[in-house]
Amino acid sequence: MLNIVQKAVDNLRKSSTVKFELNDETIDKIAEIVKQVVKAFQECKKTPEVATVSVVNPNRNDKAVLKKAIRKELGFFQNWRDGGEYYDAILKAGYTASVNDVQEAYQEVKKS
Fold first, then answer.
1. ∠ CA 90-23-35 to the nearest 5 degrees?
2. Which residues of the chain have a pLDDT value below 50?
3. What pTM was computed for the model?
């Protein structure tokens, strides 16, 4: 999961429209959002290989799961203000995710 979170943080750093500070709290929020999405994939009985396809090429339902996780983690007002930045950064990180990245995320979620 660390690779996906790192890619998302890098995407936020590269973005010129980010209006909030990238600190440890932001990184923790991104990690928690990714963890919630992985849990949702596990509940749907998706294998890491199938989940990788969903991460690299998300459909409408996969995007809705991501948006719900962001809303849940950020809360209404912060989601309204910054949710789009988180959404874009995590989606872009998912586009380049490999099966190994998703398997690592699955194993980390199982540990916790």
1. 40
2. none
3. 0.89
Nearest to 66 by CA among 44, 84, 46, 43: 84
Per-residue pLDDT, 65 = 95
User: How far is it, in rounded angstroms, from Cα 94 to Cα 112?
Assistant: 22
Q: At what angle do helices 24-43 and 76-95 cross, to 10 degrees?
A: 70
Compute how many other C-beta atoms are within 10 angstroms of the C-beta atom of residue 71.
17
What beta strand segments (E) does 1-112 contain? none
Give the helix, strand, coil percentages of the chain, each rounded to 5: 80, 0, 20
- The pLDDT of residue 76: 94
The phi and psi torsions of 27 (rounded to 5 degrees) equal -65, -40
Name the residue among 31, 22, 50 with its Cα closest to residue 109. Answer: 31
- At CA 32, angle to CA 30 and CA 34, rounded to 5? 70
What does the alpha-carbon distance between residue 101 and residue 48 come to, in Å, rounded to a whole number? Answer: 9
Measured CA to CA, the distance from residue 12 to residue 85 in angstroms comes to 7
